[in-house]
Design a protein that fits this description.
It comes from Propioniferax innocua. InterPro entries: NA-bd_OB-fold. There is one protein chain. This protein is mainly β. The chain has a single domain (3-115), classed as Nucleic acid-binding proteins (OB fold (Dihydrolipoamide Acetyltransferase, E2P), Beta Barrel), CATH 2.40.50. The chain has helices at residues 3-11, 14-19, and strands at 41-57, 60-68, 73-79, 92-102, 105-109, 112-115.
Length: 118
């Protein structure tokens, strides 16, 4: 993303920024859109982290990140974690694991992940 594109996105409303599709490159082989992820199937998704929160659950915490790729959102949950270095709002991330529908949201629990180098 060039400086001009960055500046244009900076002035755009949040919804417009996150709704733009992610441009895939050849290094992201096997990546699929969130909208095409089937329930109970393995998936590999690349997108931007739009929110990060810590949720308590039966005495333990889980780190929950929402990942958006322009086609939809995927909730990514790392159980027993309070933080993961490098993961924050705006981080480009690739996750791989089994997708399920939990509380009517596409969710991936304890996935493998790669931070994108920009």
């Amino acid at each position: 993303m060039g400086l001009r594109e960055w500046w244009r996105r900076l002035g755009a409303p949040d919804d417009a920024f996150w709704a733009e599709p992610v441009q895939y490159d050849e290094a992201l082989e096997g990546v699929q859109e969130v909208a095409t992820c089937a329930d109970r199937a393995k998936g590999r998704v690349h997108g931007t982290v739009t929110s990060v929160e810590i949720r308590p659950h039966d005495g333990a915490c889980s780190l929950v990140a929402r990942l958006s790729d322009g086609s939809g959102e995927l909730e990514v949950v790392w159980m027993g974690r309070r933080s993961i270095p490098g993961i924050g709002v705006g981080t480009m991330l690739t996750v791989e694991g089994r997708v399920c529908v939990h509380d009517k949201r596409r969710t991936m629990f304890n996935p493998r992940y790669e931070l994108a180098c920009v």
